[in-house]
Amino acid sequence: MKITNVRTICLKYNYKKPIMDALSTIDSRQCVIVLIDTDEKITGIGEAAYFGGPTISTKTIIEKELKPELIGEDPFKVEKIWKKLFSTSYYHGRRGLVLTCIGAIDVALWDIIGKYCHLPVYKLCGGYRDKILAYASGGYYQEGKNIQELVKEVQGYIEKGFKAIKMKVGRNKNLPLSPLEVITHNQGTISLEEDLERVRAVRKAIGKDIYLMVDANNSWTPSIAIQMGREFEKLGIYWLEEPVQTDDIRGSKRIAEALDLQIAGYESEQGLFGYRELIVRQAVDIVQPDPTWVGGFSEAKKIAHLAQAYGMLCIPHSYNSAVSVKINSHFIASISNSQMIELDRNFNPLRDELLLDPIEIDPEGYLHLSEKPGFGVELNENTLKKYAVED
Fold this sequence. Notes:
This protein has helices at 55-70, 78-88, 96-117, 121-124, 147-159, 180-183, 192-206, 222-234, 249-258, 271-280, 291-294, 297-309, 322-333, 349-352, 381-387, and strands spanning 3-20, 25-38, 43-48, 131-137, 164-168, 211-215, 239-241, 262-264, 286-287, 313-314, 340-344, 366-368, 388-389. By secondary structure, the chain is of the alpha/beta class. α5 packs parallel to α7 (192-206). It is globular, with a radius of gyration of 20 Å. The relative contact order is 0.16.
C-alpha cells in the first residue's frame, strides 16, 4: 500500500459572545482536518491541533512542505515516516506548528492501519479498556457571567451524568509578572479571592463525591500558585492544571513539592524530549500529551510509557473537534496509566455536528469505545460544507 495524496480541510465556527480562560479570549472554534489517501482506496483521517493564528499556516506546512515527503511511502512504516518528517524539518521545526502538523499525519497513518486491519486503533495499540470516565470541561469566564450562572452550568453537567468537572481559574488582575497585562488589557479579570469564591461555590453545589479540577492556563507565578493551591486543598481539588508557564519547569517542580494536590501539565508542551524534562524532574504528577498537539499518536504513547515508569498518570488534553476526541479516546484506552477523558462542554458544532455518530456518555458518565476500524471517524459532509473556510 502506498500514500497517493494528502489533503486538508479547515473549519471555523464564530462565537456570538466570546468565552475566556486565564489568558485567552476565544471568539471562534477552528480545526484543521487531515486526509491521507492511499492506492488501496483507504483514507486516513487526522487532526492538527489549532490554537491561534491563521489555519492557512497549518494547511501550508502540511500540503507544501510535508506532503512531498509522504507520496509513495508505505503508511505502515509509521516510525520511519515520523523520523523522516522530523529530520527534514529539524532546523525550523522540532516544536510548535511543524511538530503539530507531523502529529496530524502520524494520527492519520494509524487510522489507515486500523482500517486496513479491520480493528479499532486502541486494540491495535494495547487495548487496556473499552470505556473511559469522562470529565466535563467548562466553567469558563464570560462577560456578565456571575457565580450563580457558573453554579447552574456545573449542576447541568451533573444532571447529564458527569462524575468529574474541570473549571477555569487564573484570570486575575494586578498580579506581578502576569501575561494578562499585555495580552488582554484586564478584560474580564477578577481578583484571586473572587476566583476562590467561584471554586468554593462550585464545590458546595456539586458536593464532595464529584471530582473537581481547576485549570490556570499558565497564568501564575510559583508563589501565587502555591498560595492558591493551599486553598484548593481545603476544597478537595483533584488537580491543579498548568499553574505556571510551560517552560518554567523549576517553578512547576517547586509547586509540586509544596502541595499535596496533584499538578497536571503541560498540555502546551510538545514531544518526548519536552515531556522528558517534566517527568524526570518530577515537575508534574499528571502528564497531558494530546496526540493532535504533541507530535502524534506514536509520540504520545512514548510519553505515556515514560510517565508510567515514574508512577505518573497520563490524562491528555482534549479540546478540539470531535475528531480529536475520538483520537484521544483511543489513546487513553490503549494505555494502563490513564483515568479520564476531557470533554469540552462549550457550544461547538465542530464537535457536536461533525460526526455522523455524535459523541455521548452513558448515564454513569462513561464514554464507550467504538469497535469501528481505525478511530471510527465518519465525517458529516453537510457540516464540512457549512463551516469550511479557506484560511
